[in-house]
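Quick one, T. Sequence first:
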Amino acid sequence: MITRIVKMHFKSSEIENFQLLYQSVKLKINSYDGCEGVTLVQDTMNPEIFFTLSHWQSTQHLDHYRTSALFEDTWAKTKVMFAAKPMAWSTQEA
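Structure tokens:
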């Protein structure tokens, strides 16, 4: 099992737009082959910072999603909202 953690810092004016976008694609991501679930969380100290936590059956499933039209379209719409460069980690239980 792979957990992908993505940290995103948004322009304050884009927070609501991002939340609407996330809600519109969440079910599609959750139903993507190999995805065991995706969650959006918001930093308690800085409301401009969000994290997505997605769980994948394997690295191959994650890589397949990351080259999909769904990801490319969603990422293109998301990255214009950033206030800072995003950070991402692929993790597994130790």
